Amino acid sequence: AQSVTQLDSQVPVFEEAPVELRCNYSSSVSVYLFWYVQYPNQGLQLLLKYLSGSTLVKGINGFEAEFNKSQTSFHLRKPSVHISDTAEYFCAVSVTGFQKLVFGTGTRLLVSP
Amino acid sequence: DSGVTQTPKHLITATGQRVTLRCSPRSGDLSVYWYQQSLDQGLQFLIQYYNGEERAKGNILERFSAQQFPDLHSELNLSSLELGDSALYFCASSVATGETQYFGPGTRLLVL
Fold first, then answer.
1. CA-based nearest distance A108→chain B, Å
2. Whole-Å CA distances, A96 to A51, A66, B15
3. What is the structure's pLDDT at A96?
4. CB-CB under 8 Å, A36 with B92
5. For range B57-65, the mean pLDDT
6. B43 pLDDT exceeds 80?
7. What are the pLDDT digits (tens) for A13-52?
8. Cβ contacts (< 8 Å) between B56 and chain A: which residues?
């Protein structure tokens, strides 16, 4: 079975600073990896996904993530955050495309002025 | 706006009761997924339907059931409700299995 670990439950950061949200996964087979964002009182929105090919994936809103197979990681990064990036971020894994997503526990990004 | 609609937005009910949550997928999407988000369990996949047929099952309790109708909308039925069923229930849809899942705004269920 697959699992996802998001070690940081909360990450406080100042506006315009860079941020990295960590995600590690566990799987005995090849995986697809995703980052979703959940703004307050809203559903989940796909930020980016890794299916195959280039290990550096660019997503929406200036976010990017790098797939590292040897470290089984898929960390999310943004070089300069905005107040509007304050949200909950979920890393997810699937081994059958998008059929069944297994989510991490989420990381709350708190951006302050 | 993802194009996925869910009704109702909020639902308050009592233990032992039964409720039905409704989801309308994006236009053209054949696959519907249900997820439960709770404080203690996090985000969990419940069940998936594709064009009316059940395709995948996750951590869905026997007290819960779902179906997808010919017009592709889906309903999640929760019965014999317990306090622990209080959660946010999300529906997502995709064109087909293996494609990007688009999430609805969720239905917040409170069982008293």
1. 13
2. 10, 20, 36
3. 65
4. no
5. 93
6. yes
7. 999 999 999 999 998 888 889 999 999 888 899 999 998 8
8. 99-100
Would the CB atoms of A103 and B102 count as touching at under 8 Å? no
Report whether pLDDT(B98) > 80.
no
Alpha carbons A19 and A23: distance in angstroms, whole number = 13
Kindly list the residues from chain A whose CB atom is less than 8 angstroms away from the CB atom of residue B48: 99-100
- For the record, the structure tokens of A14 come out as 């100042």
Task: Tell me how far apart the alpha carbons of residues B22 and A9 are, in angstroms, rounded to a whole number.
Answer: 31
pLDDT at residue A97 in the model: 60
Q: Closest approach of chain B CAs to the CA of A30, in angstroms? A: 15
Nearest to A23 by CA among A53, A56, A59, A68: A68
SS3 state at A83: helix
**Coil, strand or helix at A80:** coil
